[in-house]
Amino acid sequence: MKLTLKEIASKIDGTVVGDETLEIYGVSSFYDAQLQDITFASDPKFLKALNQTRAGAAIVPEDFDDSLLEESKVVLPIIKTKNPKRQFFRILSIFHPPKEPSRDVANGAAIGSNFVCGCQLSVGSHVTIGDNVKIGDRVQIMHGVYIGDDVIIGDDTLIKPNVTIMDRAKIGSRVIIYSGSVIGSDGFGFTQDMSDLSHEKIVHAGFVQIDDDVEIGACNTIDRGTLGRTWIQRGVKTDNLVHIAHNVTIGEHSLIVAQVGIAGSTIIGKRVIIAGKAGVSGHLKVGNGAIIGPGAGVLSDVESGQIVSGIPGMPHKLWLKVAAILPKLPEIRKRLIALEKKEK
Amino acid sequence: MKLTLKEIASKIDGTVVGDETLEIYGVSSFYDAQLQDITFASDPKFLKALNQTRAGAAIVPEDFDDSLLEESKVVLPIIKTKNPKRQFFRILSIFHPPKEPSRDVANGAAIGSNFVCGCQLSVGSHVTIGDNVKIGDRVQIMHGVYIGDDVIIGDDTLIKPNVTIMDRAKIGSRVIIYSGSVIGSDGFGFTQDMSDLSHEKIVHAGFVQIDDDVEIGACNTIDRGTLGRTWIQRGVKTDNLVHIAHNVTIGEHSLIVAQVGIAGSTIIGKRVIIAGKAGVSGHLKVGNGAIIGPGAGVLSDVESGQIVSGIPGMPHKLWLKVAAILPKLPEIRKRLIALEKKEK
Amino acid sequence: MKLTLKEIASKIDGTVVGDETLEIYGVSSFYDAQLQDITFASDPKFLKALNQTRAGAAIVPEDFDDSLLEESKVVLPIIKTKNPKRQFFRILSIFHPPKEPSRDVANGAAIGSNFVCGCQLSVGSHVTIGDNVKIGDRVQIMHGVYIGDDVIIGDDTLIKPNVTIMDRAKIGSRVIIYSGSVIGSDGFGFTQDMSDLSHEKIVHAGFVQIDDDVEIGACNTIDRGTLGRTWIQRGVKTDNLVHIAHNVTIGEHSLIVAQVGIAGSTIIGKRVIIAGKAGVSGHLKVGNGAIIGPGAGVLSDVESGQIVSGIPGMPHKLWLKVAAILPKLPEIRKRLIALEKKEK
Fold this sequence. Notes:
3 copies of one chain form a homotrimer. Chain A is α/β, with parallel strands linked by helices and 344 residues long. Chain A folds into 2 domains: 3-95, Udp-n-acetylmuramoylalanyl-d-glutamate--2,6- Diaminopimelate Ligase, Chain: A, domain 1; 110-317, UDP N-Acetylglucosamine Acyltransferase, domain 1, CATH 2.160.10.10. Chain A contains 6 helices and 39 strands. In chain A, the strands form 7 sheets. In chain A, strands 8-11-14-17-20-25-28-31-34-37 form a 10-stranded parallel β-sheet, with no helix packed on it. The first copy, chain A, is flat, with a radius of gyration of 26 Å. The N and C termini of chain A lie far apart (83 Å). Chains A and B meet through strand 22, helix 5 and helix 6 of A and helix 4 and helix 6 of B.
């Protein structure tokens, strides 16, 4: 595949500075790019280093100052556009279109009764689909997936290999669920028999609801509600190995990074970011736009817009100070002892 | 399905106060319940708010003071009983009985030689069972499960979709293993070649033993013993994404919450609780009834009944004090500097 | 199976002290061994306790002082050799040889077009292999595995049940991948639409490369590169539930312990050890031979040979001091207050 710079510019609402007939055969990162590739630079660090990429052309910000090119003797043509990174990935997706799956149902798929599906369904090998399942248009269900009874899936959703979706899950449109993830396992809830301190399983009668445009990473575990739903709202993205307990709500467009755990009944607001390995206790509220730092241990509510870090979780700026003092504790202790000696 | 309050009361050894002919059609939580539902209240907070639920009836503690009803002008009938929460979930399980699986072996299941099984076996689609496997009565093995050679499984055990059980595992009766879990992978043990510092794999000749009434959450990894067994004793419950290394023992009725990791050869006592994301080092002993707090890093033995929290793990009450002081470290440092200045 | 001590000694370059005609029927650990077993002792603690094992014989270090036997009235024969632990596991692997898989392709395996494979291929039940896949000699692919298009696998590699390997992965020879692991899921990368703060998926056009002699534990998630590769170099071993993000490199012979997470584009050197539950931020460099302690939070580069522990990550010796002071913070605060009072 090849595109001229002119063709590329037209796709990303950009303006070419330089030879717009140049042919581009691929897309690559700043330092890996070769002469036939296009790359991008949006960071000042990269914009100043344009003479160091071997790319044939670069996508740069709309307000990029051309005189910089002359200064650093850069000869490569550029395309100016808004949000070069975003546009770069648009071009990348043109050069690497997703492979179109075969729009059929593989031999041996086990499909239950009352199955309803839209057009262009793709079901891979070794799939099982339960009873009363309803699926939209252009859904792709890959190898080894299990879909329980009474599951609903919207249009254009992609379920990657070896995903498990238990009974009564409601999954929206344009959702992607990566391999190994388990949607709708029972929550970790028991009642205790005080006579022998054993734990009796309680029925988990609820379900998982995943709204449109959600992406669930690999090997996530999202438990069903005990009663009612565990709810992953529109546009949420989760990374790998994330645990979401029963009756949690995650608000629209929130990002949950790898190995995060969220305990039962906690409500996460909209556009929240929870960084890798952080843990959030149960029955808490995390407000809209809050940010929780990597590895933080959140034990109390977080207000909208607040940034919380550290163990125990505290305001981020405070944690930065605390984290800077922690390595100085041995010295601080010595100074305290010195003062005490003087005092005597 | 519907039950009168009288019928419900008889099932949970309770006493109705109010109209015992009232018909109940469902079960719901305190604030979600509708007029045809029954709910429960055991916490004083909820008992005082009985006028705020829209439920048709509520299960309350045996010693609940009826005069509270009048005070807060509550009109809904109640059922008094011991342990209302436990009884509520009993009623929930009556309204939501587990779906009876088809008691047969799906087409295409790959079953090895010398297979022995009890009555009413249920094997889902795309299952593989190795040689010399012995399975009890009413066992359910769902879609995509792999069971290796020489595995033994007791009665009434339920293996959810896409579980992997490797050779020689011994699994008891009434066990539930949730999707994505891997039982009996090799432990993380190597010997090092000092010439090139490479690591040589060692044979893991041991196995995993899971006793009766254990529940293993989704995406757990339980490694086999290097020699001998990794042993999950009777009544243990693990949450999701738990890692249990080779030759670990977990004592009866212990609870292991999500994303906990337990390193090799550690022995966890009976009725221990390890909260979410905690880590326990290898070759340690954690005594009966001990509690390990969320995210704690346990690097030394824990005595019976002790509560350990924090990083590094320390007695819980001490950790509460430490955790309260950590955010004050910047201020403490300033005060120390002020003292030093005065001293000069 | 049985071997005389003479036969065992010849296999491990050892010298028998005692009856070399003794027949050994099994291999066991120091305190579990019975009269027909051989065990090993390399630690002084065990060497002094040789009178306490019930084993029939023991493998001990080359420089073991025989007089210790007399002192403690030990009568069991011994084999002296270099690195007794390593040799013990060699003997263990002789008594427990890996089961030879059936060298054929199970019925119902779904194999794509242009499949190229070497001799003695073993493909288990319910496997799917995509188009243009190329596989070496003696490869074993177990139950439920998914292998995407354009994947390359070397000789003698073993893919355990229910593993997912996405398109274009390159996997070396003598690699083992344990169950539940996902190789080549998309990285956690998005561009943000500033108008509604939603996140737009970006194409992940890269791949995962796993070199020879690597072992990947159970339920690992290794994301593909956004552009270019995520690279697990020769001899690396990962434990269970490890997360490796897009474009990470892990250098030769490094060990990554359970539940570690490594964020995007970080480069880990050779022979690095990252202990359990540690997290390493993105875009960092960890030098050759570095060691990262359990649960450490690494937020900046780590130099070769450095040992880093704690949260935030700091030199290990410093962290030991800090960790010792943390439980004393309440007392330190009291002493500070006492000094302040005196000052007044």
